[in-house]
Amino acid sequence: MINQKRLIKLMRQLIQIDSQNPPGNERKIALFTQRLLKSIGVESRIYEFCKNRSNLLAVIKGKESKHALLLTPHLDTVPAGRSWKQPAFSGKISGDKIFGLGSTDCKCNLAAMLEAVNSIVEDGVVLGYDLVIAATADEESGSGLGLIPLIKRKILKVDAALVLDADDFEIVVTQKGLMHLKVRLKGKKAHGAYPWLGQNAIDLAVRVLNGLKTQKIVCARNKYLHQPTVNIGTIHGGDKVNVVADWCEFELDFRFLPGTNERALLEDLKKTISKYTKKFSIEIQGVQAPYVIKEKHPLVNSLVSAMRNLKIKPRLSGSEGATVITFFQDQGIPAIATGFGVEGCAHVADEYARLSNLYQGARVLVEFLKNYKPTETVSALARK
DSSP state, 327? Predict the structure, then answer.
């Protein structure tokens, strides 16, 4: 049974541990989590792909080990910044709210998971599968020191994954892909008093970007996601005010729907730039494929049923941003995301979570874990 008093105490303890990324140091919170698990008889191991960038991995053996389910929240937070009115690391409680950096993203999910595991162990429940826990580093900077190497190096061996990094009991079944890139345009330098003697790369960039903004990305609609977007994140150019700029570079953030190929987006971008100049280069900084899982997939159904059993209305949704669920698809592992944070509270000053969500979230996880049927999930994957 979920112990609400213990859960709130745990949540405050987690908030009071600084795990800001950058600079990036998850060791203290990983060791705290490891000690807590050990106190209830669950052994774990720390993996680091860079000093102090700690990932915790634990396996709770079930009745049989043919199948394994992963629960994975992350340990790091964004930096606090200077705009907080509440103490960022106090875990202050006011009514149903608990304030603190990472309270919504994503220490409420870590706390709910740990309390759910504690409850299952206390009650002597033996699951019908192995439960794998991975509390990971570096999610806020792309997971290059966390979930990605854990998956690619086959350290995580699971049939299905439930990512704990979402808000208000939503169940994320699809998300946009992303492509980050830098475009560099080359012009011709000249004296600022004689601009006709040169070619201004900043002028070229303005024309390219205007052309890009009017260009529509053709794609099928998705009922859970907004249309594709492109954001101009940065722009730099020129050396001095009285010199015609012979260089300009800008960074673009593309978000695109399932069914769209990033290579097609890249070719369209090249065509747009080529209308204005042939002297350019493109540096791909990162690509994350879009993701979709069937609404009736057994993994989705299991979580929906768990919520309904507790009189919580499940909410299927899509993610406009990039969660880690896409990292599982290359391995053929079905994954969804859920979580118990407060929508609109991630990455803001005076971030908070709701204690009621925290308690109900832990109950949902217990219900889900007790009734999850891995054989159905694996069969559905085989049919895909």
Answer: G
Judge if 4-175+291-383 and 177-288 fold alike in CATH terms: no
Domain boundaries, the chain: 4-175+291-383, 177-288
pLDDT, one tens digit per residue, over 173-232 is 999 999 999 999 999 999 999 999 999 999 999 999 999 988 777 788 899 999 999 999
pLDDT of residue 378: 74
Report, at the CATH architecture level, how domain 177-288 is classified. 2-Layer Sandwich (3.30)
CA-based end-to-end distance of the chain: 37
According to CATH, what is the number of the domain 4-175+291-383? 3.40.630.10
Strand partners, 69: 131, 160
The runs of H, that is alpha helices, within 275-345 are 298-309
Tokens of 49: 């792909």
268 neighbors 260 (Cβ within 8 angstroms) = no
CA 374 to CA 159: how far, in whole Å? 8
Residue pair 159/377 in contact by the 8 Å Cβ criterion = yes
